[in-house]
Write a structure and sequence with these properties.
mainly alpha; 92% helix; 0% strand
């Protein structure tokens, strides 16, 4: 996983947490749910990047 990907995922996660908190405080359920969705998307992207890294490491060990 590249540094840019890690930074992008961290930014998306923080943005999601901020939206969730703002929605919670203001009572805006749509904003709160949007924040949760952003965090979930970030987690999925992070898991995908980790899987690619693991596959690359296995490939490197086999060659």
């Amino acid at each position: 996983m590249g540094i840019a990907d890690k930074a992008e995922n961290a930014k998306d996660d923080l943005t999601g947490k901020a939206k969730e908190a703002a929605g919670n405080v203001s009572g805006d359920n749509d904003l709160e749910n949007e924040g949760k969705a952003d965090q979930f998307t970030s987690a999925v992207k992070d898991a995908g990047e980790k899987a690619k890294d693991a596959a690359s490491n296995i490939k490197d060990k086999l060659t």
